[in-house]
Amino acid sequence: MAGPGWTMLLLLLLLPLGSLVGYGLQKQQMNLSHKVIGEPCRSHDECQSNCCTTNSLDPHTLCTPKTILLQCLPWKKPNGYRCSDNSECQSSCCVRNNKSPQEFCTSQTIFLQCVPWRKPNGNFCSSHQECSSQCCIQLREDSPFRCMPRTGILAQCLPLDYLRLPLERLVGQEHLAAVDSAHPEVTSFWQLP
């Protein structure tokens, strides 16, 4: 009959064998499930880098290396690619960059602002935010709203009619003709319908 000491000794001898068997199975599973960078994957656990994301316009996920700060970041679109949200772009800036309603990834300003394209002076508008001058006004009461340059010393958004009518009374038409020839941009707006 074996005493409690012998039973304990037998268990201690069998314990390392059991853990070695488990280690061998675990190691074999680990080698089968860890994929190298560039292989298709479904979850982070499948990759050696522990990072499974998209790395191009292709929607399929691939094992991808982590960043220097050990972050697993998905691929983002560079400037010029179409987008629908800021999070899609490397620059975190998705805005219109021309008259087209389509938005594109665009670089931010030096102050890290994401500024959309705005209409140049003379274009039709419905709000100040649409214009590069931030000034959308009517030239006359019966004319449509247009983007206009800011005027005056304080660069205010004032219609040219309000500035021109008092000047006509004060200085006469001859003086205004000289002003118009010196500032053709003012004259060009007078000729707009």
Automatic annotation (TrEMBL):
UniProt signal peptide: 1-22
Keyword Signal found: yes
Keyword tags: Signal
GO molecular function: enzyme activator activity
Biological processes, Gene Ontology terms: digestion; lipid catabolic process
GO CC term, one of those recorded: extracellular region
UniProt keyword Signal present: yes
InterPro entries: Colipase (IPR001981)
TM regions (residue ranges): none
Name of the protein described by the UniProt record: Leucine rich colipase like 1
Species, as recorded: Macaca mulatta
Encoding gene, per UniProt annotation: LRCOL1
